[in-house]
Q: What sequence folds into this?
């Protein structure tokens, strides 16, 4: 019997109340790949992410991790699955009243039986990995945006997760800092063998990190492309995907479609 | 699957001398995060005890699994080696583990200035506290002045806030507060009547329960209980809302657009309270008297008509107004303290909590203090 895909999304529907924003989502993610969920603003990327990590209940469809359903899991099973995830939230989500070291240490204190000195060692190591050695006693408010993101990553990596989710990692960062974060994402994957799922609309970032990507089309309310982004840029059937991946503004496409310009 | 995993061998460290100056460290077992990590101390002791040692290498052939805990362990080993100038030979380690060790060493991190404040002496602490207290007082007085200025601008017809905001705030501070005010006023009225009934009945003066309840509610309890409820309810909500706006940089956005938070945020809240507090107080007075009536009817040998006539005799407009004037003063106290604490809020989530607590504590303190001042003034005026 073939091994089930690492992460599999089946006939998933995203909805707010009774208004469906996405339907018929079907894709799978391989172990150890960097997978990007892309699409324009408001297409439901972040909602999809919230469903993938179990923060938002799923109405229709299924999400399977190594063949185990997150949707149908009991509370205990869900907690066990979620312990395999690390999540970097869009604004970092660092606990503001704790220092960076305490932020990273808290999951270790809650979920392992390591001695305080060992936790301290691991925390220093994790912070060193993201380039924040020496910042252990800083509070999140004392950090720049890029540093807060990296600290968030260190916390997401606290329990050696199998899968790390990133919600708009480049949002609010300058291009250089955003590129460093992308490099860090690749480093995480290469060093830990972690599966990485990234939600983003930033084109440069997509080309830099993505092994494969899925495109959510807000107008058609479903996914219209799935594969390596470079391939999709030329071969995708949906013109919106090609437009998106070539950096053309979607609005211009729509205008062009409404009023064809004479050649 | 869990059972199988729990049978995985415990992580262990075994050291063996393989050459006169070389120590081989065998790492075995499953180094998972939810397992303990072997103590580094025996290895350190072995290293310390042996002056001839020049190199440490590793054997991981029996390593069942590993996680960050092993990396942290090895990182410590390396630090020990560096301190003793012993060569740390990572060739026996898995590739990925080696990369992670390198990564930890390669990342820059030096040259950071830690924000460390020295602990001042107690004399200095007293001085600092006094200065902080003075600054806070000045700030509060300034704030009251600014509120007064904003109010005068509004009276002169200056366009300052959105009418819909003010109406919504008035609804939240008025109509939505009715149930809790009704409940508390009813109970207070009943308690007053109960206490009065027990005492006055002994002197055959049970009819005066009506006077007691009516005067106590109108002069003191109606406005005071309403103020305390509103301080905990609406004052806290104002402080939390303004504090959150500060955290979200919404207040900065107002500043950038040249919109005064005094005019736009504080004023409508204050006006909502000023308009609603007297109404709520009247409501509380009536409900309180009703509560007293219920207890009097059930406990005392009085007719309903007697009770109502006595209540009407006891109350005059002066008694009633004494309470109403106080309720306006309480509205100012609640509005000003809540908005001040909200705007003074720091920039993190915990600060919002502190601002809210401080708003309620300061508010209630000043309500009681104001009530005491009014008692003295009314006494002097013979009201």
A:
């Amino acid at each position: 019997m073939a091994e089930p895909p690492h992460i599999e999304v089946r006939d998933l529907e995203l909805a707010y109340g009774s208004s469906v924003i996405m339907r018929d989502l079907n894709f799978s993610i391989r172990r150890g790949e960097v997978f990007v969920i892309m699409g324009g603003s408001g297409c439901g990327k972040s909602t999809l992410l919230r469903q993938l990590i179990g923060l938002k209940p799923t109405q229709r469809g299924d999400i399977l991790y190594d063949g185990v359903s997150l949707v149908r899991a009991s509370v205990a099973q869900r907690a066990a699955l979620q312990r395999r995830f690390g999540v970097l939230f869009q604004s970092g989500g660092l606990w503001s009243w704790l220092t960076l070291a305490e932020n990273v240490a808290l999951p270790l204190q809650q979920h392992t039986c390591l001695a305080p000195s060992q936790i301290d060692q691991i925390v220093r190591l994790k912070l060193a990995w993201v380039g924040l050695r020496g910042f252990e006693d800083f509070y999140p408010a004392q950090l720049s945006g890029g540093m807060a993101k990296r600290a968030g990553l260190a916390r997401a990596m606290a329990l050696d997760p199998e899968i790390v989710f990133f919600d708009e990692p480049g949002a609010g960062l300058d291009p250089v800092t955003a590129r460093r974060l992308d490099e860090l994402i690749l480093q995480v994957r290469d060093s830990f063998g972690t599966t990485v799922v990234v939600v983003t609309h930033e084109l440069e970032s997509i080309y830099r990190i993505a092994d494969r990507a899925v495109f959510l089309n807000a107008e058609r309310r479903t996914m219209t492309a799935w594969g390596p982004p470079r391939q999709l840029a030329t071969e995708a059937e949906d013109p919106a995907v090609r437009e998106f991946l070539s950096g053309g503004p979607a609005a211009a496409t729509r205008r062009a479609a409404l009023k064809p310009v004479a050649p | 699957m869990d059972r199988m995993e729990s049978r995985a061998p415990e992580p262990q460290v075994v050291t063996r001398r393989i050459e006169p100056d070389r120590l081989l460290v065998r790492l075995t077992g499953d180094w998972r995060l939810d397992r303990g990590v072997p103590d580094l101390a025996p290895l350190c002791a072995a290293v310390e005890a042996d002056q001839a040692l020049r190199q440490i290498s590793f054997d991981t052939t029996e390593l069942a699994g590993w996680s960050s805990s092993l990396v942290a362990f090895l990182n410590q080993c390396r630090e020990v080696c560096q301190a003793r100038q012993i060569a740390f030979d990572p060739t026996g380690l898995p590739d990925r583990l080696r990369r992670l060790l390198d990564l930890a060493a390669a990342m820059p991190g030096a040259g950071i200035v830690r924000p460390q404040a020295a602990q001042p002496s107690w004399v200095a602490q007293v001085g600092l506290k006094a200065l902080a207290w003075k600054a806070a007082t000045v700030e509060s007085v300034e704030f009251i002045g600014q509120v007064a200025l904003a109010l005068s601008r509004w009276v002169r017809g200056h366009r300052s806030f959105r009418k819909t905001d003010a109406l919504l705030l008035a609804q939240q501070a008025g109509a939505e507060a009715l149930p809790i005010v009704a409940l508390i006023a009813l109970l207070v009225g009943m308690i007053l009547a109960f206490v009065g009934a027990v005492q006055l009945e002994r002197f055959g003066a049970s009819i005066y329960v009506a006077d007691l309840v009516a005067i106590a509610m109108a002069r003191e309890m109606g406005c005071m209980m309403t103020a305390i409820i509103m301080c905990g309810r609406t004052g806290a909500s104002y402080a939390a809302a303004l504090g959150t706006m500060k955290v979200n940089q919404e207040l900065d956005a107002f500043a950038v657009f040249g919109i005064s938070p005094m005019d736009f945020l504080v004023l409508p809240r204050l006006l909502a309270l000023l308009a609603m507090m007297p109404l709520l107080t009247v409501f509380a007075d009536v409900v309180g008297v009703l509560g007293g009536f219920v207890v009097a009817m059930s406990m005392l040998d009085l007719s309903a008509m007697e009770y109502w006539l006595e209540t009407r005799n006891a109350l005059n407009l002066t008694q009633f107004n004494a309470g109403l004037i106080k309720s306006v003063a309480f509205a100012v106290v609640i509005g000003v303290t809540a908005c001040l604490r909200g705007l003074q809020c720091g920039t993190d989530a915990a600060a919002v909590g502190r601002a809210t607590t401080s708003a309620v504590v300061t508010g209630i303190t000043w309500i009681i203090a104001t009530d005491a001042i009014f008692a003295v003034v009314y006494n002097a005026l013979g009201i």
Remarks:
- The interface with chain A takes residues 33-37, 67-69, 71-73, 75-76, 96, 99-100, 103-105, 107-110, 112, 114-115, 347-350 of chain B (CB under 8 Å).
- Strands of chain B lie at 12-19, 22-30, 55-59, 63-65, 87-89.
